[in-house]
Write a structure and sequence with these properties.
Blueprint (H helix, E strand, L loop, with lengths): L3 H22 L6 H10 L18 H14 L8 H13 L2 H12 L5 E4 L15 E5 L2 E9 L9 E7 L10 E7 L5 E6 L8 E12 L10 H18 L23 H4 L19 H9 L1 H12 L5 H29 L7 H24 L10 H11 L6 H8 L10 H12 L22
Parallel strand pairs: 1-4
Antiparallel strand pairs: 2-3, 3-7, 4-5, 6-7
Helix pairs in contact: 1-3, 4-5, 4-6, 6-11, 9-10, 9-11, 10-11, 11-13, 11-14
The structure holds flavin-adenine dinucleotide.
The site of flavin-adenine dinucleotide (FAD) has 20 residues, from strand 1 and helix 14.
Amino acid sequence: MTDTATETTGTEELLSDLRAWLSDNWDPDLTVAQWWERLGLAGWAAPGLPPNAYGKGMARSDTVLVHQEVGKFGALGPPAGLGLLLAAPTIAAHGTQEQIDRYVRDIVTGQKAWCQLFSEPQAGSDLAGLQTRAVRDGDEWVVNGQKVWTSGGQYADLGMLLARTDPEVPKHQGISYFAFEMLQDGVDVRPLKEMTGHALFNEVFLTDARVADSALIGGLNNGWAAANTTLMNERAGLGSGGGSAAGGGLAQPGTVMGFLSKRVGDVVAPPAAAGVAGKSDSRTQQPGGALGAMRGGAGLLIGLAQSRGVNGDAGVRQDLARLYTLGEIGRFNGLRMKAVKEQGGDIPGMPNVAKLSMSQIVRLTRDLGLRISGPAGMLHAYDSDDKAALKHATGDPFAGGITEMALFAQAPPIYGGTDQVQRNIIGERVLGLPKEPNNDRVTPFSELPKNA
Ligand SMILES: Cc1cc2nc3c(=O)[nH]c(=O)nc-3n(C[C@H](O)[C@H](O)[C@H](O)COP(=O)(O)OP(=O)(O)OC[C@H]3O[C@@H](n4cnc5c(N)ncnc54)[C@H](O)[C@@H]3O)c2cc1C
């Protein structure tokens, strides 16, 4: 096992290299695009990626420290979102070097924003039951079907598309994974409004949309393997708190949001505020946004309990201690995983355990936050004017924020695979328990019964 002293020295060296690099390179007068190009090509936007994919091959726990350090320095953090979190590591693992240079470069430099076109109305937990079809037409594929819950689809340049390319084989074997251009005829993105007031996710209708054969990631009918890499990164990222890809500012990647040509000094958060998630503008809201705020839960809620004078309440204190403990266990598990990986090992199921633990943190933060807030926790504002009015009327800087977190708390235990699905995976793949009996793995997809 790596001893703590070595680990601390390695991490300190890394952070001091980063600080030196930031001193030489950070310039608030650059455009966002110019800054992200510097950050991304130097390997600091996604240091967890391998060196041939614009990274530095760092452990996940170190990448979180890197992003925090960029925020503390007062520079704009890496381009947040699903490109960096999911598409880049998947393409780095399954794509050719030509695909890495075509897609990952644009992700780490923030040129392109991505969404995840996996879930369908009849295929969420049973993702391999997806029915969107891709049919070959020369050097291209023609895609028809419907996706749903597509986070950020309305702002994405590209999507990680799972489509069925062979219905005559068992369901896991006939799926392919494409880097799919969103900005084309045949793609109809319709935002879905949530009870938070934001429209984070969308329905996406695909009608004779096209994707090039050269955009096939990981080979024909091998999409399930690539999809699993995406899902493992999603669970590990969400579980470790990296889901928001630590922003440190308000800029979002891609050609649709319009941040690339802005002066970077105008969009970076001041160092004191960097890392505070849960921004009020729905255009900047990512799955990790409210989640990031929930993960800062113990510190945030201790402050709230003190300001409300309930920090002496034994029940509140006990739950605050539980919340803090869960956060610390998550942090220690991250360090444990790093140490084991440095020895060439692995801890099977750890991303699933991390995601389950995150769900627990989210629910506890919701319940405790509302309990501390009292009746004010029932008040919610849907736009920035109402938010300001609510804060003014209550004299409470937290007003609305806790409620927004509580309303969003239903989501994290669902996305990236529900709690029940995480438990199934741990049971079957880690503990070796028998699978539920079914014939999915042998029967051609076309012969399986389907919902209407
Ligand atoms: C905020 C948010 C953002 C999302 N973003 C995206 C995105 O960007 N891209 C994308 O592709 N998808 C996204 N999703 C979709 C998400 O991955 C699915 O909602 C999730 O996989 C569950 O699928 P479902 O909603 O179809 O529920 P279902 O699969 O229908 O599940 C319904 C219930 O049945 C339970 N269940 C199902 N199967 C089993 C089983 N075998 N054993 C035990 N219990 C079971 C589930 O746990 C759940 O409680 C997002 C979801 C949310 C909430």
